[in-house]
Each structure stands twice: as structure tokens, then as C-alpha cells.
Design a protein that fits this description.
Number of strands: 10
Oligomer: single chain
Largest sheet: 8 strands, mixed
Mean pLDDT: 85
Distance between the termini: 37 Å
Structural class: alpha/beta
Pfam families: DLH
Low-confidence stretches: 1-41
GO molecular function, one term: hydrolase activity
Shape: globular
Strand content: 15-25%
Number of helices: 8
Radius of gyration: 17 Å
Organism: Methylopila musalis
CATH topology: Rossmann fold
Enzyme class: hydrolase
Order of helices and strands: EEEHEEHEHEHEHEHHEH
Protein name: Dienelactone hydrolase family protein
């Protein structure tokens, strides 16, 4: 089934309809579509030296895979999120995404690059986050492109993985059948090879009575949320998708403690 997302406190207000944006249900698929609202890429939302955060590099020996670990400076238990980048790896924007999740109150780990056919490695990293001294024990995954593919495969894990957010992830019927975590799926309307997989994947999720949310953002290309790529970045859909992702993670992992 499709579950409508709760509104997050402090989330951006809906943008009024205009010639460059619309939000409609897309026919029988029941998808939420958002128009382009394309704008130039911007600088980091959270600075690399933000004094509210503890930020460190972790190694594969520590965490199963190398990456950037960020969380608030106050030592407290937090829900954890694993960030899986696209094929270009942990770019400045993906590092910013990791810091933004930390400011939102999560224990966030952005991996250097999603390993090829190494879901066992990622499962070790999920376990690392679940057992971290500052973790509440519940873990979510946020994946982009190739990392979105990996996130959908990880959805078959049982606890501690409870939520998966995937941007342009190509899911299969087998992955839909195996999914145990709740899913939130974001798709760029112009990513033709990816969007072609939506009907079969959605039908398999519905057939298996899985819990998921599915959003299609019309008029934008793959990478619409990536502020490092001015040729594809679309500010308003990116902000809308971000608000939805944070609300979804909070609803599934529990409210994150404030970062000051």
C-alpha cells in the first residue's frame, strides 16, 4: 500500500503552483509529481567545520566500509542513517547530505562509495551503526542512484534496519517480495531507464502488501537533488524530497534529538 507521509515540524511550506511546478497524482500509478523549479546549485547547507557537530572519518576496519561519520556534539542516543552515494562516490554534496542529517539529529554515516556486489559488507556497516555507543539501535538507509539500488537490496534485512529511502533506485520484483523495511521511493521523471521499472516494482510491492511511499518528480533529470550538478539540480523538488525523506525517517526510526 501507499502511505501518505506525515508532515515534519519545521518542514518547508508547500510551494504555490505556477508554470514551472505542479504537484498532481499521476494517473493509475498514484504517484506524486513535482515540477522542475530548476535553479543553480548552491553551496553547502552545513559547513564542514560546523561547531554543532562531531565529524570524523571512519575506516573499513572500524565500520565495515570507509566513510564520513557525523552527529551532534552532545553525547546522546540517536537514530542512525547510512548514506549510499551514486557511482561518483562521496562528493562534496553527499558529504553535505551527511552533515545535514547530523544537524537533523541523526547519527549519519556517508560511505565513500557503495561496494560492488557487497551487500554483506553493507550489512556489517548497518550493524556498526546499530551498535554504536551513540545509536538508539534503529537504522535507516538513504541511497542515490547506484546507492539507491543497494538500499533496495538492503531492505530485505530484518531489524535493526527499519526504513529505506531510495532516489532513482531500480527495484525488482524479487526485492519487493523480500522487503522488510518500510520504503520511500523518489524518481526523476526524465530518468527513462529507471522510471520504466516503476510499474512492475510498484505492482510487486502492492501484491506483497509492503509499506511504501512513491513519488515521481516530473520534468527533472536524474541527479535533481544533487547541488554539485547545476545541469540537473532542481531546487524546489530537491527541497520537497528532502522534507519528505526526513519526515519518513523520523516516523520510522523515532524523533531525533535536537542539535544546538
Amino acid at each position: 500500500m501507499i502511505v501518505l507521509p506525515p508532515r515534519r515540524a519545521g518542514a518547508s511550506a508547500p510551494v504555490a503552483e505556477g508554470p514551472d511546478r505542479r504537484s498532481v497524482l499521476a494517473g493509475a500509478l498514484g504517484l506524486c509529481a513535482a515540477g522542475a523549479g530548476i535553479a543553480p546549485a548552491t553551496a553547502a547547507v552545513v559547513a564542514p567545520d560546523d561547531r554543532r557537530l562531531n565529524i570524523e572519518r571512519v575506516t573499513a576496519e572500524q565500520a565495515g566500509i570507509a566513510g564520513l561519520l557525523a552527529r551532534g556534539r552532545t553525547e546522546t542516543k540517536r537514530p542512525a542513517v547510512l548514506i549510499l552515494p551514486d557511482a561518483d562516490g562521496l562528493t562534496p554534496h553527499r558529504e553535505d547530505v551527511t552533515r545535514r542529517l547530523a544537524v537533523a539529529g541523526f547519527l549519519a554515516l556517508g560511505v565513500e562509495a557503495p561496494p560492488e556486489n557487497a551487500d554483506e559488507t553493507l550489512a556489517r556497516t548497518v550493524a556498526y551503526l546499530a551498535h554504536h555507543l551513540e545509536s538508539k539501535g534503529d537504522v535507516g538507509v538513504l541511497g542515490f542512484g547506484r546507492g539507491g539500488d543497494g538500499a533496495l537490496r538492503l531492505a530485505a534485512m530484518a531489524k535493526p534496519l527499519k526504513a529505506v529511502v531510495a532516489y532513482d533506485g531500480r527495484g525488482t520484483a524479487d526485492e519487493a517480495s523480500a522487503a522488510k523495511a518500510a520504503l520511500q521511493l523518489h524518481y526523476a521523471g526524465l530518468a527513462g531507464e529507471v522510471t520504466a521499472t516503476i510499474p512492475a516494482f510498484k505492482a510487486a510491492l502492492e501484491s506483497g502488501e509492503k509499506t511504501f511511499e512513491l513519488f515521481l518528480y516530473e520534468g527533472v533529470a536524474h541527479g535533481f537533488e544533487d547541488a554539485d550538478k547545476p545541469e540537473t539540480y532542481a531546487r524546489r523538488p530537491a527541497e520537497l524530497a528532502w522534507d519528505r525523506a526526513i519526515a519518513f525517517l523520523e516516523s520510522r526510526l523515532g524523533a531525533a534529538p535536537p542539535v544546538r
